[in-house]
Amino acid sequence: MVRKAALALFVLTLPLSGLPARADGGRAPARDVVGGDLAGNGRFPWAVRLSMGCGGALTAPRVVLTAGHCVGPSGPNDRITVTAGATDLKSRTAITVKSVEVYRSPDFVTETAGDDWAVVRLERDLALPTLPITSENVDKGEFTVMGWGQTRETSLLQERRLHYATVPTIPDDECAAAYRKAGVELVQDESICAGRHGVDTCQGDSGGPMVARDNTGRWTQIGIVSWGLGCARDGYFGVYTQIAKFRTEIAEATHRLS
Ligand code: ARG
Questions:
Q1: pTM of the model
Q2: Which residues are the active-site residues?
Q3: Three-state DSSP class for 32?
Q4: Does the pLDDT at position 4 exceed 50?
Q5: Closest Cα to atom 11, ligand 1: which residue?
Q6: Is residue 240 lining ligand 1, measured as CB closer than 6 Å?
Q7: Residue 95: in which H helix or E strand, if any?
Q8: What is the Å distance from ligand 1's center to 197 Cα?
Q9: Where are the domains of the chain?
Q10: For a pocket test of ligand 1, which of 112, 146, 202 has the largest count of ligand atoms closer than 8 A to its C-beta?
Q11: 93 vs 13, higher pLDDT
Q12: Which of 74, 70, 131, 210 is nearest to 82 (CA)?
């Protein structure tokens, strides 16, 4: 996950998709590496890693919530391996379990078009804490984001250990104006933009949770890592699926797959 991106040249020519942003010849030197922090074991016990290179969170003992663009269409699916129960993927306490079924938002088309969520049914229950989805319509504040993805835009490496960071939200209109210049129309009412100078999620963090503590101090999920132009570029922010907009659908899907 995240951190410091290389200086963005060629902004308009870089890929906007979840593909690793190969800086098409524009490999400017990285500025100082700021970053999130390493999460110690047990820190975010519901955070999981998916084998296609995404993150996710356990919304129920055998259901993982992730991004729609991380998975294929709805239906039986035994091709995903989920690593859970450890922030260090190579730790002896890490559990791996297979998927049996995927349910992707029926409205999902592509990550920048909204509806970027999916749930994955696992072959068995995991005895781990689950992360409830928010019951409030929060879309502003400081949120915690996490993942095993790249720690800079130009690194093609994934991390063995979970990283996390705290990022403030950015007003939708500001975020949309930036992306409009890059030719992408932000789906404002289904997205939360967040990030600050040098701190962002990055390739490989997709599907992972954006969380906040509720008024009882319990972590709840507010968003899902979805997309961004490069990583941690000044003026461009990470875009997260706004869970509150899909609360009923996600809760129903979780229930069905439990
Ligand atoms: N789509 C990316 C993935 O598959 C996530 C990108 C998040 N980018 C960002 N700048 N916040 O991992």
A1: 0.88
A2: 69, 116, 206
A3: coil
A4: no
A5: 238
A6: no
A7: strand 95-104
A8: 16
A9: 45-130+247-257, 142-244
A10: 202
A11: 93
A12: 70
Q: Which of 227, 233, 234 should be mutated for ligand 1, with most atoms under 8 A from CB?
A: 227
The structure tokens 């949309």 sit at 176
200 lines ligand 1 (CB under 6 A): yes
Pocket of ligand 1 contains residue 203 by CB under 6 Å: yes
Q: Looking at the predicted structure, is the pLDDT value of residue 190 above 60?
A: yes
pLDDT band per the 50, 70, 90 thresholds, residue 40? confident
How far is 78 from 257, CA to CA, in rounded Å? 14
Q: Which two tokens stand for residue 82?
A: 């989920």
With tokens 């996600």, the residue in question is: 250
Query: What is d(CA 254, CA 138) in angstroms, rounded to the nearest whole number?
Result: 21
Question: For the residues 152-180, what does the mean pLDDT come to?
Answer: 95
From residue 196, how far is each of 2, 36, 98, 143 by CA, in Å? 11, 11, 36, 11
Helix H or strand E segment including 213:
strand 209-213
Domain 142-244 has CATH 2.40.10.10: yes
Q: Collapsing DSSP states into helix, strand and coil, what is residue 159? A: coil
> Superfamily for 45-130+247-257?
Trypsin-like serine proteases (2.40.10.10)
pLDDT of residue 12: 32
Cα 151 to its chain centre, rounded Å, is 14
The percentage of the chain sitting over the pLDDT mark of 90, rounded to a whole number, equals 81
More confident residue, 96 or 13: 96
Per-chain mean pLDDT for the chain: 88
Q: How confident is the model over 11-16, as a mean pLDDT? A: 35
